[in-house]
Every structure is written in C-alpha cells, then in structure tokens.
Amino acid sequence: MSQVAEAVFSGGVLTPSVPLDLKEFQRVRLIIEPIAETAPGGRTQAVERLRRGIASMDFRSNGALPSRQDLHDRS
Fold it and tell me: Which of these, 25, 37, 27, 34, lies nearest to 7 by C-alpha position?
C-alpha cells in the first residue's frame, strides 16, 4: 500500500504532517522531493487567477448543434 504525505525535516528527523498507517518498526522506502516554499497568499492568488481565466473563456457553441443522427452516423 502506497501513501503520499508531506513532512518537515528538523533536527535530523522527518516528521510527517499527517498520521501514517504503519506498524511500529515497519520498514519503508522514502523518495524525497523538496517542496518549494511559496509566498503567503500564493495559493489564494493562483486560485483567483484561475477563476479569472475561466470567467474570461467563452464555452458557447457557434452554429447549429449536431442532430442525434449526426452524432451516431458512422459512415
């Protein structure tokens, strides 16, 4: 069973940010990927940019919609 969790390294010890479903003294394999520090509000700003981008998109169809026969025509 795989788990993905973030951890903080301090004083030579990795401390997970969430409880791990592991038995005491269970051996595990670690793949370490540093997480870039973000400026405060970075996520909030990114979500706001995403919302503005979506709001500016035009998802309307131009022209007549295909008929059921057009959608199922396999010739």
Answer: 34
Output the tens digit of pLDDT for each of the chain's 75 residues. Answer: 788 889 999 999 999 999 999 999 999 999 998 887 766 677 788 888 899 998 888 877 788 888 888 888 766
In degrees and rounded to multiples of 5, residue 13 shows phi and psi of -125, 135
pTM for the full predicted model:
0.45
In the chain, which ranges are E strands? 7-10, 13-16
Residue 13's SS3 state is strand
CA 64 – CA 30 distance, rounded (Å):
55
Q: Which two tokens stand for residue 66?
A: 């295909």
